[in-house]
Structure formats: C-alpha cells, structure tokens
Amino acid sequence: MQKKLLIVGGGYLGAELAKALENDLEVTLVEQRRTFVHAPAMIRAVVKPALLDSALLPYDKLLSKGSVVLGKADSVDEYGATLVDGRRVNADYIVIATGSSNGVAFKPESDNIDDFRTVITGLHAQLKAAKSIAIVGAGTVGTEMAGEINDAMSEKKITLISSESSLFPTMPTKFGASLTSKLKKSGVEIRFGVKVDNLKSLTKPYSGSLHLSDGTLIEADLIIPAIGSRAESSLLESLPNINKEKNGRVKVDSYLRPSTYPNVFAAGDVASNGDAMTIVAIGRQIPWLTKMLKASASGKKLDQLKPYVPWKKAPLFLPLGPNKGNSYLIIATFGNWVTSKIKGKDLFITKYRKLFGLKV
Ligand SMILES: Cc1cc2nc3c(=O)[nH]c(=O)nc-3n(C[C@H](O)[C@H](O)[C@H](O)COP(=O)(O)OP(=O)(O)OC[C@H]3O[C@@H](n4cnc5c(N)ncnc54)[C@H](O)[C@@H]3O)c2cc1C
C-alpha cells in the first residue's frame, strides 16, 4: 500500500511537490484558497490588472491522482491535520508549506480571491489618478514595483525609499549599481539611507506625507509599503519544541524538520533553513524533498540520506518592466536582454499555467 503524504499549503512549494509525488505516494494537498496566486505577476498586475486572468490559477487540474482539499488547517500533529471545520486528514508524512504574507496588493490578505482582485483593481485606479507615488522599501518587490510603474506610466513622479546605502547591498556591486542607474535614467528618484518615521501602514497603500529620518518630508498621492514578507507560521505552534524567528519563520533542522516529530517537515517561506524567502529557493528544496520522501517511503532511514544544503548565492532576477532589468546568475550580473528573456516578458506565467494544467 502507498504511504500517505499530507501537504498543508498549495503555494509554490506545496503545489509543485504534490505534483512531483502524486504517482509515488497517496497525496492530499490542503489549501485554503480556490486559486493559486502567482506572486511575481502581481506587481505588474497593479499596472495591468488584465494579467490577473492569467496569473490566478484554479487548483482543479493540478493533480490527476492526488487530491486537493479546499479548507484551512487549524492544527497539525505527527498523524496529520485537523481543519478549521473539524475535518481530519491523516498521513504518514506531513509537509507544512503555509508560506508568507506581504503587502495587500502583493499577496491576498484572506482566503477570498475576489477581495484580492478588488484590492488590485482598486490600487490600479488609485495609481492612475495619482501624480506622485512613494514606494517604501527597496527590496525586490519595491524595486520591481518602481520599474513596473515607471515602464507603464512614465509620467508619474516616483520616489523609491531605502534605508540602505545602495540597492541590493548583499549582491555583487554591479547588480545594484546597474539597476540604480536604469531607474534614475528613467526618472525614478531613489532616496538612500533614510528611514520613514511615520509609516501609517505596513501593508496597505494610502495617501499622505512621509517624515524621513534625515528631517525631510515627502508628500505623495500614493504611498505603497513594500517592506517584505512575514511567515505564516501560526499552524506550527501546535508542534512540540519549535523555534520561531523574529520574521515568523520557524527553524528547521538539516532534514527540514521543525519539531521533534521525525515525519513532519516544513519548507518554503515558512521554514528557516538558510535560504531566502523566494521561489528560487523553493526550486532547490522541491527536488530534495521529492527524493527524500520517495526514499523514506521505500524504507530508507533519513540518516542514510544526504541532508538539505541551502543556496550559497541564489540567482536573482529583477525586471524593471518587460524589457529592462538585471539578473544575477551563478557568478555574473546580466542586463536587459537576459532578464527580459528569463523573467521580464512572461514573469514565469507559462511555467505555472502548465503546472496547473491550464492553456498557455
Ligand atoms: C509580489 C511578490 C513577487 C515575488 N516575486 C518573486 C520572484 O519573482 N522570484 C522569486 O524567487 N520569489 C518571488 N517572490 C517570493 C515568493 O512569492 C515566495 O517565496 C513564495 O510565495 C513562497 O512560496 P510558499 O509555497 O512557501 O508559500 P506561499 O506562496 O505563500 O503559499 C502558501 C500557501 O499556503 C496556504 N495556506 C496558508 N495557511 C494555510 C492553512 N492554515 N491551511 C491551508 N492553506 C494554508 C496559502 O493560502 C497559500 O496558498 C515574490 C513575492 C511577492 C510578494
């Protein structure tokens, strides 16, 4: 008889892992939303809401042998999970992949996808009406957002605010320097080395004024907070001996186990394993999890298998609209052409539509 695998959370980690293992294990994927939200496309969807139709992907055709259960897991233990409505799913292996949340326009606030559509189309209307836009936070999402707005609505005055002294200071200098120069050339103002003292919301766009730590003031018709992801880890609190970090991620051991239960794993944004909170990191975790779970289901002990090793320096693709941007791959920084080919034009929509069994 096939061993049972329960995956909680059908984001990048959960959806792809379920598909990879459905022929080898009896897979159940528990997901609270009716559709998968393809996050990289949401930044462009704010300037081009029609993109929502190709980047919100229903779960019905994802699996052919495994099953997707629509529901929210309330607690998890070494035998399975109990859902909020009382249903129970039992399994031999459990993978928790409940991911993270972000600004309201970048990831849904709740399980209601219609509300999320309304937020994005609402922000699009605000953006069209605004003359000045301030983006607070110059990580990947904030910088891409500046590039997308500038590309689609070049008449807007955009200010990108960073507390760092340069863009992407942990990456090779050329990467951030080239992005800075492209943004500045197209008219985006970047304020480095300043903190906002009076940010009213960490997640919701609003209009008003920003007091910066250098004493200056920015008035903006639209302020977009882009200050990073927070792990959705409350579900893991039902496990013994977990160790949560400040950003909500739960520490896992080198076999991606967050607690003393040997058959319960956690991966993706919710798990702190040395990787960043990215799809690129998940792309490394999925093959390892697939191999490990197959081997374990066929009787191998975990300590006979190689532990997971995180990225040393992960690739990073940062488009500024469909045609511009920079990418870091292995040892070098690439420019507009490579970035556009790999990510800028399609935003990986084709890959995920195929995964979900949808027309491309
Ligand atoms: C705007 C934006 C753009 C991004 N672009 C890129 C990019 O270009 N490249 C890149 O590498 N990374 C990118 N990222 C980061 C990437 O989106 C995350 O790393 C990725 O979403 C993490 O995947 P995950 O499977 O861990 O979690 P998530 O994608 O967050 O999925 C978690 C899933 O679990 C479900 N869930 C949560 N709790 C429960 C529960 N209790 N019961 C049932 N279901 C539950 C949620 O509904 C969700 O579907 C981007 C992030 C944002 C916000």
Question: Quick recap of the structure?
Answer:
By secondary structure, the protein is an alpha/beta fold. 28% of the residues lie in helices and 24% in strands. The protein has 9 helices and 22 strands.
Structural write-up:
- With 360 residues, the chain is α/β, with parallel strands linked by helices.
- The chain folds into two domains: 4-32 and 71-102 and 229-304, FAD/NAD(P)-binding domain (3-Layer(bba) Sandwich); 113-228 and 315-355, FAD/NAD(P)-binding domain, CATH 3.50.50.60.
- The protein is 28% helix and 24% strand.
- The protein has nine helices and 22 strands.
- A five-stranded parallel β-sheet has the order 5-2-1-9-18, covered by helices on one side.
- A hairpin with a 2-residue loop joins β6 and β7 (80-83).
- α2 packs across α4.
- The two termini are 36 Å apart.
- The model has no long low-confidence stretch (mean pLDDT 97).
- The structure holds flavin-adenine dinucleotide (FAD).
- Flavin-adenine dinucleotide (FAD) binds at residues 8-14, 30-33, 39-40, 42-43, 72-73, 97-100, 102, 106-107, 141, 232, 235, 268-270, 277-280, 282.
Q: Any descriptors?
A:
360 residues, FAD/NAD(P)-binding domain, 2 domains, five-stranded parallel sheet, five-stranded mixed sheet, globular, binds flavin-adenine dinucleotide
